Amino acid sequence: MNRSFALLLLTANATFADDWPQWLGPNRDGHWKETGIAAKFPKGGPKKEWSVPISGGYSGPAVANGKVYVTDYQASEGERGNTFNGQSKRKGKERLLCLDAKSGKELWKHEYDCPYQVSYNSGPRCTPTVADGKVYTLGAMGDLHALDAEKGTLIWSKDFKKDYNAKTPIWGFTGHPLVYKDTVACLVGGDSLLVAFDKNTGKEVWKSLTTPGAGRAGYCPPTLIEAGGTKQIVVWQPEKLVSVNADDGKRLWDVELKTYSDMSIMGPQKHGDYLFVGGIGFYCIVLKLDKTKPAVEEVWRGKKETGVYPVNMTPIIEDGIIYGVDQPGVLRGVNLETGKRLWWSQKAITGKDDEQEEKKINSGTAFLVKNGDRYFIFSETGHLIIAKLSPKGYEEIDRAKLLDTTNEAFGRPVAWSHPAFANQCIFARNDKEIVCYSLAE
User: CA–CA separation, 58 vs 412, rounded Å?
Assistant: First the structure.
């Protein structure tokens, strides 16, 4: 056989591998493009490759260049406090652990003292962001660190409370750092809602969107989109959805979108010429993006009988359909252009459909990732589900229990952390361990 032809054939049949270097994957859109993934789980569930003890946290892992990065909180004093409207004090250390992706062996760790005063105080919220040889972490109390991704040495750091007069939100800082060109943009609050730092030195490049009151930044991750010929960073603050120029922070447009208890959480999602964002309290909106300039036009706003209102997850939009978990704990399919609800199912959250939709799970959570024509759904029950989602409904293919539910919400046990998908594996964590399971066919 001709050598060149043989090489071409080998390349065509090779599986496609991809890292998961930040929240929601390479493009922050929940799409996992690896091939060679199992259609169903083997008997007894997927193979566990390794398990490593860790401490508390809601932050998902990041996987890049053969390494896993995950943050946690090693408490030394105080109890876990999961109250809705109060902040609980704890003492301890926030940590960033770097593990070998194949074995789970600890390669290095970075830790620092970090007294907590937040509600749901198990640990950090933000997934590490890995880019260009560095890893960026943002802790629950507003500590931003840039470290060498290979060695773990600290390069620079910021304290949002001290440096920007930011007040820690009730549920902590949650805006996953966004790397764009030579900057890392973060939701800060206090003097400025959004700040871009030089990713190599930590020097402030620009700041934008002065908030009306300290601490009212909300919880939305800075989201990069391109529309109207302009790279934009979109942030949902508690009263407005705002876009700024990604290069200089100049405000481009804003649309009123109030929230319940400042809970602007999900990352805005762009699909074609449309932009969707929504959250608890029947607040959601779809905007049409102008093709010629940075501007938007309102298409529809949510009402009680329309739309979807996610709490802890960011929906995926596919072929004009929004797939997201609603506040009551039901997975919905919703028409993007009209807001019409097409179907609902609780199976991805509770494992079964109740006879009446009124039987609801408060803030029920499941995290969606799309691979090929299927979705991998990590439920708050610790199950990984393979399912097909379409305008017609939810079709479950398989499920397996991966993790125990070590946290608590509204009186029920939960696992609230978005997993990572890379190396034909899933990397998931709770408050006691991080695990790696093979999903290879």
Answer: 16
Using CB atoms within 10 Å of the CB of residue 48, give its burial: 0 to 12 exposed, 13 to 18 middle, 19+ buried: exposed
Question: 3-class DSSP state for residue 191?
Answer: coil
Residue 163 neighbours by CB under 8 Å, 6+ apart: none
Distance spanning both ends of the chain, measured CA to CA: 28
Q: What is the DSSP string of 75-112?
A: EEES-----SS--EEEEEEEEEEEEETTT--EEEEEEE
- At residue 90's C-alpha, the angle toward residues 212 and 54, to 5°, is 110
Side chain identity at residue 240, one-letter code = K
Closest CA to 407 of 32, 45, 119: 119
Quote the pLDDT of residue 13: 36
Over the chain, what is the mean pLDDT?
93
Residue 151 is encoded by which pair of tokens?
A: 């060695």
The 10 Å Cβ neighbour count of residue 29 is: 17
User: 196: part of which helix (H) or strand (E)?
Assistant: strand 192-198
**Sign of CA pseudo-dihedral 299, 305, 307, 313:** positive
pLDDT in tens, 76-113: 999 998 877 667 899 999 999 999 999 999 999 999 99
- Per this entry, what is the length of the chain? 441
Question: How would residue 328 be classed by pLDDT, with cut points 50, 70 and 90?
Answer: confident
> What is the C-alpha to C-alpha distance for residues 142 and 384, in angstroms, rounded to an integer?
31
Q: Please, what is the Cα angle at 218 between 270 and 226, to 5 degrees?
A: 25
Taking alpha carbons only, the member of 358, 355, 345 closest to residue 390 is: 345
Coil/strand/helix, residue 164: helix
Contact predicate 350/360, CB 8 Å = no
Single-letter residue type at 330: V
163-212: pLDDT as tens digits: 999 999 999 999 999 999 999 999 999 889 999 999 999 999 999 987 55
Residue 18 identity:
D
As a whole-number percent, the residues of the chain with pLDDT over 90 amount to 87
Give me 149's structure tokens: 């991704």
Query: Residues near 140 by Cβ (< 8 Å), separated by ≥ 6?
Result: 73, 94, 114, 116, 118, 121, 123, 124, 125, 168, 172, 173
